[in-house]
Amino acid sequence: MPAAAPDAPESAQRDALERARRVRIMIFDVDGVLTDGRLWYGPSGESLKAFSVLDGHGIKMLMRSGVEVALLSGRSSAAVSARAAELRIRHALQGIEDKVAAFGALLSGLGLGADSAGFMGDELVDLPVLRRCGFACAPASARDLVLRHAHYVAAAPAGAGAARQACEFVMQAQGTLDAVLAKYLA
Description:
Radius of gyration: 15 Å
Largest sheet: 6 strands, parallel
CATH superfamily: HAD superfamily/HAD-like
Structural class: alpha/beta
Number of strands: 8
Shape: globular
CATH architecture: 3-Layer(aba) Sandwich
CATH topology: Rossmann fold
Number of helices: 8
Order of helices and strands: HEEEHEHEHEHEHEHH
Oligomer: single chain
Helix content: 40-55%
Distance between the termini: 39 Å
CATH class: Alpha Beta
């Protein structure tokens, strides 16, 4: 049972918190995680995507807390590039056919091990990375098999705050959430 479920065993909750404490980089799939998974095309064939401001602000808070953030997507989109630039995400890997290889190369380039990486995915193509990272996350709307391999499942669906919940869970586990929130209470 996922750690986010209120009736999850206490051991699963503790395991998810311990895994989240080790996260130094949080990596997000895009379609089906930061978006609701629907693909929109404009009249000229351009790809349009809707991103949640909740997720965006959660990512900014997570980066402010000292955790690196990356995007890892099988598709390429100018909209994703624009969103990554807006959020100041330095690592936006798009058009990736082999997510495991890209995951390994990213971590190697940053001098990090898989146990210090979190990944949030929703679809079967994300399972190889979810099974290798130290902290596997999924939105509530993910495929059943993905949910079964997640250490943390957000209560929110994709594109509607799921990434924000994962970010806040990591910050809570690392003891940085209160300090980040204090900025807004000053």
